[in-house]
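ingest -> fold -> write
write: protein_1
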Amino acid sequence: MKFICSHIHNDISKGIQREYFVYFVPRRAVVCEKILEEEKVHHLLTIGEYPLYLIPLDEDVLSFEIDVAHKEYLVDGDTTSLWHIAKALHKIEFSFGVIPNVRAKGKASVRVADILNRMQLEEPVNTSEMGVPEINTIILLDREVDMITPMCSQLTYEGLLDEFLGINNGAVELDASIMGVQQEGKKIKVPLNSSDKLFKEIRDQNFEVVVQVLRQKATSMKQDYSEMQTTTQTVSELKDFVKKLNSLPEMTRHINLAQHLTTFTSKPSFLGRLDMEQTLVEAESYDICFEYIEEMIHKQEPLINVLRLLVLFSITNSGLPKKNFDYLRRELLHSYGFEHIATLNNLEKSGLLKKQETKSNWITIKRALQLVVEDIDTSNPNDISYVFSGYAPLSIRLVQHAIRSGWRPIEEILKLLPGPHSDIKRGGFSSSPSLDTLNGSSHGSDKVVDGRRSLVLVVFIGGVTSAEISALRFLSSQEGMAYDIIVATTKIINGSTLTETFVEKLG
């Protein structure tokens, strides 16, 4: 706002007269307008807002594009983004009908569910003309409920691309040389979404498998090519071969990307970190992990990497013993600079890094929800844990239960996780018994008119990782699953981008 004011003051001092328009996306804020008033330029401006609610990033992923929602809510106690999320969901209801079941877990989620209900009272969606609602259930989850998953390294193809290269709004930007283009120092953008058929096929698979798939495809292409040179082909065989050649650019693109990823995934430092993450998730030897983090600090590894492991350490152990906590804190500030005291403060305030006061209940949660799965077959997975090679994301296990049988059967476990939970029936649907059970049985309610499956909308408040989206796609594709799943999120994140929102830039 100060910057805008300085422009206007500059014009006035030069005697230039203009019309000024300021548009806020997604909505205007009183604080901002206060500054314009203090600077005595408010009366010169026409102020508007553009309510940008949901941006489709792919066929089944919508984003509110609110980067710092999680930190704002946890650290600053700022709830404006919650109103925004509820408003977006209410807008969806105007197009697709009132959503009959709302299940929420976490402080922010329960609040969004309340606001959504209030909006429905104040500005009701007319249910009578809509017929069967297209979206049967909405599941709202706070990121805070499961901070373990994003702190683990994702092992799906898309997840790893995001971890190492940073996917931004469905594209990665890389040096041209990596993609086999010879242009010194030029960067190119590589789009990554479902319109790329090969990407659609491999994005959700474990990276181990992706390398095999690409190898097979390349081999069979080579074979076709050599056959082409030897025998006499009919026109239709030629046509088939040319059709296969059309997929060549996609093949080349992903072979280049996968090869580049391998340079990261084969590093001892990466494999060492995976080991640590696994040890923490399995809640095994505390001392080894402590020493590992201590060593990272002394080697001055990137601060974000250290904080990511520390948060994982703190959450699985329900905090660090006081002496370890004070010691690591001091070491961090010595190693990375005193100005990070604000960062540590943010992490403490949000409960991500704390002194241990109670015994950890992680082992109970892990067992009850079967989060660690032994002997996982990544090439032919039968469980969502394949996305982290043996750890099933807690958040997605909760979604699995919410879809299968609602919150009731896992109530005791839900109480062990941060924040309240709620389960609301809405609209004129509470009387129909078929909607009580969401277990894929053949009720009329499961099918929307033209034979499509009805939808479950899963909303992550505070961000979701690519690996979690992959796990949800996997659930949706399982036999006996009566729903298609659509994901909405404040932002697509990974452990590093999430941790970065807590880093305070001083000065």
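write: protein_2
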Amino acid sequence: MAASEIDDFIGKNDDEILTLDQNEEEIDRIAEIFKDRCLFISGGTGFMGKVLVEKLLRSCGDLKKIYLLIRPKKGKHPDERIKEMFNNVLFDLVKKQKGEDVILSKVAAIAGDVTELGLGIQPNDLETLRNEVTIIYHCAATVRFDEPLRKAVFMNTRGTKYMLEFAKSVKHLDFFAHVSTAYCHLHVKTLYERVYDPPANPHKVISACEWLTDEQVAAIEQKILGDIPNTYAYTKSLSESLVAENFGELPAMILRPSIVIPVWREPVPGWTDNINGPTGLLIAAGKGILRTMYCNSTCYGDFLPVDVSVNGMLVSSWYFLAHGKKEVNQVAHMTSSKEIKVSWNEIVELGRWVIENKMPLNWVAWYPGGSFKTNYYVHCVCALLQHWLPAVFIDLLARLFGYPPFMLKVHRRLANGLKVFEYYANNVWDFDNTEALRMRKLLNERERRTYIIEKVDLDLVDYFTNCTICARRLILKESKFAIPHFEFAIPP
């Protein structure tokens, strides 16, 4: 991407914000704390992981090295996956500022897998990490809410156990951050920044999953989960308890972001690499595929843009490293509902207005519309009439014209997603963020501009517009020439 294209994409206002005044009297203490350090990150190629790596390289560029734990995937070597990651538009700004060769020299791939004993890391790589690393971010997790329990336990819970065992072997470890979720203790309607009891003994659950087969675990999954609606919340809760067990032995902290949504301001407004959560709903509704949802429209979710979440992670890291675990609460929330409450109805209406007036989508199945239903049975009838019957009709037409059917498959995926969404859309949780409020007061002006964790003043119209543009170009792979009033330049 050319420099002029980056400037066009980010926009003048954001570019001015990113180019901070170099006030010699104000030192960026957060960048200083990372200077000459080696970091080890699991899950660095995931949605939040990519943004974390980009922010570290751009704002804390004097760090020595970032080691990323990467699984070989689809026949690609981990080094190839890193180069592929850096080809993403997310990294264009830092490549412009620092130079591609510089940032590539700062990042190294470590072949491994959190589901394997010893993280699946080769002995020579293990020795390097044990000697050099001082900070660990454990971000790796399966975020599929409907993941089979046994697989979710191995990835989320046993993977955390293996990461903790590795952390204990690091010779000069100063900080271990476990990235959890604010939605892992769903029986607590107001979640505070403290440790909660797990739903079961994590060691026994891991042991049971190791000697039972997939089929045996699946047969008793619902009984094991009890009132917990999905395997994601269950296994993340178990993982937190493993970290808490080691608070006395490790300089560890549990970080709980809420529902992480696309980038707000930097480096690319609206950037995402998936259509999970609100972005998926926006696209499905804009395409006319989503016509009905079972949801209490007056309820609200706790959303936080991924760049703000990552800022919170870095500020929490600095706070811990600067003050030590005896003075710091070892649980911190990156949440927004304490200060901002936007109902589901407000989100949908704003998204609909953007789709209808600013950024209509191509190849729609039906004019954007539909509504929330507070009665489950009314929703089921509407889903039959507005989702399933039209899908059957479209697939029949596709077969008649010699094309493979596709709409029923789309609606099955949509129905699975809505099944997960319904639980969260019809309940409300609040999250205390005392630690964030405390840390804000300690930041100087330069740090406040670089690592924004203040109350997020979102212009929702602009935000949804940027999200739609990025989803169309980066997820749906539409040409920029197909987007009306296209004002941003993302490379094909």
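write: annotation protein_2
Residues 1-24, 488-492 have pLDDT under 50 and may be disordered.
The two ends are 10 Å apart (CA to CA).
pipeline exit 0
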